[in-house]
Q: What sequence folds into this?
């Protein structure tokens, strides 16, 4: 089997998670690490036995020993970095959110088409076995027609305007940082745009949103979604149908899901994995590349555009809302 040679840019927390899970990726190998610091690149490379180490990103993009690039940098940098990597013919797996606006997403799409390269948003949740099992239960009619989707994701991050999460110039705020997960979960089970979106939000002293609650109205169903820097939320997802429901604890990193008929649990799935779960999307990208695809069938760029449109609609509700 020809292994995809991965280059990784950024040496922060998510990059470490991606690198650790590469041991569970039979069709890939970490070939290069790029960081803004030579010391950081050398330390990261030594920790994960990565042969090629760069203190700039462009050198990694130009490296002949790299087939695909995983972008693990702040989301306001994604578009420019991905475009530079695409220009060198590299496949792209880019951390979520892919970009920060619908307009940027369209530009990202155009760049991928222009350079004729593979590109996917790293919505790793979609590839987790428990999420796929829950989706299969819905598709099999196990809960009847879906009528409600509930999902929330939040962890307390104390206000500090110097933090990236609260920095307006770095596209800070809980919507892009954490809210992408509930928004993506709603799309996965609704598979269409809502006819209306309403939201209530609170903002930090510098005006960056730090708590958002939204209702997506689809006409025949609703989605109640929330995200927060102010408090730890339940972080579960619930898919409610006419005949039953599915619960997914910690849905964003799901290990399990439960199927109910009324109050009776009729089935339970647990994946028993040893990895963090980032390996599933990485394997899928490798399979796509082996098949010559330019897009994922699970997270095509049109789906990423839907995420951006929905978050943009939400943003309009709280841009001028006081804390």
A:
């Amino acid at each position: 089997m020809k292994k995809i040679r991965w280059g990784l840019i950024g040496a922060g927390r998510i990059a470490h998670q991606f690198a650790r899970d590469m041991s569970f990726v039979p069709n890939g190998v970490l070939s290069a690490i790029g960081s803004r610091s030579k010391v950081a690149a050398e330390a990261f490379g030594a920790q994960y036995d990565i042969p090629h180490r760069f203190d700039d990103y462009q050198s990694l993009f130009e490296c002949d020993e790299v087939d695909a690039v995983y972008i693990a940098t702040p989301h306001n940098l994604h578009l420019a970095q991905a475009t530079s990597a695409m220009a060198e013919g590299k496949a792209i797996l880019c951390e979520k959110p892919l970009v920060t606006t619908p307009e940027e997403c369209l530009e990202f799409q155009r760049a991928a088409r222009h350079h004729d390269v593979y590109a996917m948003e790293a919505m790793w949740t979609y590839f987790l076995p428990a999420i796929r099992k829950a989706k299969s239960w819905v598709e099999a009619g196990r809960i009847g027609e879906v009528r409600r989707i509930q999902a929330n994701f939040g962890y307390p991050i104390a206000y500090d305007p110097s933090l990236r999460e609260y920095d307006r110039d770095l596209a800070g705020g809980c919507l892009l940082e954490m809210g992408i997960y509930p928004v993506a979960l709603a799309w996965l089970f609704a598979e269409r745009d809502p006819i209306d979106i309403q939201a209530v939000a609170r903002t930090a002293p510098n005006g960056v949103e730090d708590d958002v609650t939204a209702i997506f109205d689809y006409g025949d169903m609703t989605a109640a979604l929330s995200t927060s820097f102010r408090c730890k939320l339940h972080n579960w997802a619930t898919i409610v149908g006419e005949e039953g429901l599915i619960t997914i604890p910690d849905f964003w990193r799901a290990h399990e899901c439960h199927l109910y008929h009324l109050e009776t649990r009729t089935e339970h799935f647990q994946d028993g994995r040893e990895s963090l779960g980032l390996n599933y999307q990485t394997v899928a990208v490798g399979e796509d590349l082996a098949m010559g695809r330019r897009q994922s069938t699970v997270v095509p760029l049109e789906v990423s555009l839907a995420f951006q449109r929905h978050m943009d609609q939400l943003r309009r509700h709280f841009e001028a809302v006081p804390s």
Q: What stands out?
A: The chain has two domains: 4-122+286-293, 127-276.
